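Thread: Newbie trying to understand structure tokens

Hi all, I'm a second-year student working on a class project, and my supervisor (Dr. K.) asked me to get a predicted structure for one chain before our next meeting. I've only ever worked with sequences, so writing a 3D structure as a token string is new to me. If someone could post the tokens and maybe explain what I'm looking at, I'd be very grateful. Here's the chain:
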Amino acid sequence: MSCALSITQAVNPPRAVFLDYPLGHTAGKPNDKSNQRRIMIDAIRALESIQAPGTIATLNNQWASDHSWKDMVMRPRANTERKSQHEDDRVERYPDPQYQTEEDARLADPACPTCVFLDDSE
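---
Reply by user tm_fold:
Sure, no problem. This is what the structure looks like when written as tokens:
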């Protein structure tokens, strides 16, 4: 699954699903379980239907009613105090897994054989 069509095309995976959502939201909108569920169902169906190698299926889900959200993506806001620099308005990154809810954190299995959990000792 990808939210970066040009990068996905350049990588040329065996098959992929493109979702025209902001980067970091490939699985749906935060805290919107019905949106996330719909995306996962649509993605699985799309992946199952791909017959030709290199096909990238596009999901029809919409982030917003128009495309104005794209105007701010990857364009930092100007810092008014220092005209030559820009503010870094990206969300802070953390080394530990982040969860939408406490219930999600409780249910996460650190021994999951198909999940990657970073261990500081490595």
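A couple of things are worth pointing out once you decode it. Residues 1-65+98-122 form one domain. The first strand starts at residue 15 and ends at 18. Feel free to ask follow-ups in this thread.
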